[in-house]
Amino acid sequence: MNGIFIMPEFDVIRSDARCTVCRVCERQCANGVHAFLEEKGLMVSDETKCVNCQRCVSFCPTHALKIVENPNRLRENANWDRDTIREIYKQANSGGVLLSSMGNPKPLPVYWDKILINASQVTNPPIDPLREPMETRVFLGKKPEKVSRGADGALITTLPPQIELSMPVLFSAMSYGSISYNAHAALAEAAARLGILYNTGEGGLHEDFYPYGSNTIVQVASGRFGVHEKYLETGAAIEIKMGQGAKPGIGGHLPGPKIVGDVSRTRMIPEGTDAISPAPHHDIYSIEDLRQLVYSLKEATRYKKPVIVKVAAVHNIAAIASGVARSGADIIAIDGFRGGTGAAPTRIRDNVGIPIELALAAVDQRLRDEGIRGNVSLIVGGSVRSAADVVKALALGADACYVATAALLALGCHLCRTCQSGKCNWGIATQEPALVKRLNPAQGSERLVNLMNAWRHEIMELMGGMGINSVEALRGNRLMLRGVGLTQKELEILGISHAGE
Amino acid sequence: MKPKEGQVRIPSGCAIAAVIARDGERMSGEGMIRAMEPMHDRSNGLGGGFAGYGIYPAYKDFYALHLFFDSRDTRKTCEAFLKTGFEIWHAERIPTRKIPAITDEPIIWRYFVAPLQSVLADLQLDEKEFVVRTVMEINTRMKGAYVFSSGKNMGTFKAVGFPEDVGVYYRLEEYAGYSWTAHGRYPTNTPGWWGGAHPFSLLDYSVVHNGEISSYDANRRYIEMFGYQCTLQTDTEVITYMMDYLLRRQGLTLNETAGVIAAPFWETIDRKTDLKDKEKHLYLRTVFPGLLITGPFSIVLGFEGGLMALNDRLKLRSMVVGEKGDRVYIASEEAAIRRIEPDADNIWSPAGGEPVVIRVKEGAQI
């Protein structure tokens, strides 16, 4: 027997009454779902290829298309659900490790949604951001423990290197290779216009984007792809990627078909080879080794750039972060288990790591207990979905948030979670020139700027409601949060009270 | 049972007043009591207090510890603890006057003490740090005992009641000081005990404050990294610790401290043409982001030899300053100043975030 037939996940519903056989759907679908049946003069669909990216639906001029869940079902079973059975068939057919993309889609708790924000009533006034200054500027980096003065008594105002952001949000790491040139162009341009930073991810930096250096975080991951002196010199900050929320404990995956042309040159690896980064950095097997890499990078850039250490949120994250804060890092980035990815083994994405909300609360508190919170800034990511999530993260103790999935959505991503195929119909997670050009970088950056400006307005409204007119006073201000429907233990870890208390 | 202050956070409105004689002349505490009278409606009878500077000249080299006790046993235990680190030069009940308006009083004592040099050497601490740690130790660990004043040649007096009555209760007319601050409180809930009244003080720093700061928990969680413990959950408590941290431990000047807690807006800093000043403010905001205070406040900080008045950056609370000769007056309302100095001239409202620092003139006896 050959492979077991795997029933399609989706059904393509086409209204023949509306369809004008213009064949736009056929041209838009890189997966080859739609075809023109010459002899009948009709459009037909091959649902087995459909990933539900909504490209055809969006482009159909007569709104003749709908993608729906396949109504054909296996017999209901609360234990053996459809996805579990499908995955078993796939593995029985192929013998392989299953790959998935984007963040963990499982119905695990989203703590952001169980936290509510305060507002001022009577005893102190809300502040109106339309009429009063409302500050969202933040500086990330190590703060000196003690001020010092010169012989004349004046403060010595030299500081360790800092990153200045106009608002407490940065675009998180997405490598050139996993996403397209045009997606990178849009992120770089938007970061520059917004006064924030984007992150190269582990794929190096295309030389066209060097002019955006002051808005760029350059990443050094275990594969060391595209890392050289000029690369380090170009960035505003350097990030050592120790782990990623979507796949803690393993390195990056970039399938060979995406390693073509400039991607191969930028990564400094041959075309068509799978870029599988090692799980550990082979020069970091322990905390003292991390310290050496941090200082190697600082030496290489003459102590002018802050070094970020990015770690995945895992069980012992508080102790790990405390160790990292003592290793010379200026900033710690923590990535929660719901963070996105361009490709990760499904089992790891769906089962490894912990929620960012709990990790953040535990880390912030531990660093304070140790009296070293000022040694480092904290960036958190791993599914920060809105301005409200940003405000909650800041109040729990973060200095800033990494966003990536939200940024991709702004670029047109429809979260079909098939980035690993390299056939992104939206021109984002692909290297096929015909697909890449579907994403117009100018329009993409405009949408990213719109999204972030909208978030900034919302952050200001939420802050003003609390009577807070600067993000500094929001950071770590847990009294501004209340939990709903959380257990005593969850509240204790989050360091917040229950609503009504 | 209703929770006591400290177990619950109680927002409060308030009245504040202060006076200082720049020539160091001593004034009785009565003036401050009278200044509070026209602001009666800014308090609700659930807290009042005063701080006087220069009031203990006979013991000016000793730390004057004022303590509340819930029982004689607690007092005995606490005294035994104090003797392990201090020489107690003089101890007495703080004189009070029984009046119907003030009830439920705790046992109130004061101790004039000097830290034992051998203990300081052993712990490798300076005198002030040792006093601070002792105060924290008693206030967090010793149930039923509470230090509410710990400076030299100064003292805080506070109770649950209207400030005018609290002043009469503590016989403030019998004290003479070169500067005074006063506070009337309008808590939204019953504090349950006297510790929550203001001023709040640590060493010779005392703070009276009107407002409800929205940055409270950000400030509290930051300052608690450095050994301070906020047991009362009040704004004034955390502000006092922030002052101590910035002024004593970091060695900032009063103006620099104001630049941290009521920092100029970024756009104001960006516009500064004095580059040194610009760099200083950029530095202070970047280094101490956790100590920025937002939300409404007007505070008067008392310290040895002076006062500092400061409003929040948006001036969300009223506060005026007036002068007459060598005297400078600060109050929530002009009426308070006019009550004790009808001819006060040069009455003005300091701008939000603009510190007003008044010091006793050089050479004046304090």
Pick out the low-confidence regions of chain A.
none
Radius of gyration of chain B: 19 Å
Label the structural class of chain A: alpha/beta
Note the main sheet of chain B. 7 strands, antiparallel
Task: Say which CATH homologous superfamily of the largest domain in chain A is assigned.
Answer: Aldolase class I
State the end-to-end distance of chain A. 64 Å
Q: State the end-to-end distance of chain B.
A: 46 Å
Biggest chain contact: A-B, 40 and 47 residues
Shape of chain B: globular
* Whole-number total of structural domains of chain B: 1
Query: What is the helical fraction of chain B, as a range of percent?
Result: 25-40%
Q: Kindly report the CATH topology of chain B.
A: Glutamine Phosphoribosylpyrophosphate, subunit 1, domain 1
CATH-defined architecture of chain B: 4-Layer Sandwich
In words, what does this structure look like?
The complex is a heterodimer of chains A (501) and B (366). In chain A, 30% of the residues lie in helices and 15% in strands. Chain A is of the alpha/beta class. Chain A folds into two domains: 10-96, Alpha-Beta Plaits, CATH 3.30.70; 138-144 and 156-498, TIM Barrel (Alpha-Beta Barrel), CATH 3.20.20. An eight-stranded parallel β-sheet of chain A has the order 9-19-18-16-15-12-11-10. The mean pLDDT of chain A is 96. Chain B is 29% helix and 29% strand. Chain B contains eleven helices and 18 strands. In chain B, α1 packs antiparallel against α5 (163-169) and α6 (216-223) packs across α7 (235-249). With 366 residues, chain B is α+β, with helices and mostly antiparallel strands. In chain B, a hairpin with a 2-residue loop joins β13 (297-303) and β14. Classes of the chains: A alpha/beta (501), B alpha+beta (366). Chain A binds chain B through residues 120, 123-125, 127, 132-133, 135, 137-139, 143-144, 146-147, 149, 154-155, 157, 159, 162, 368, 371, 373-374, 397, 466-470, 472-480, and chain B through 9, 11-13, 188, 211-219, 221-222, 224-226, 250-252, 256, 263, 265-267, 276, 279-280, 282-290, 292-296, 313-314, 316.
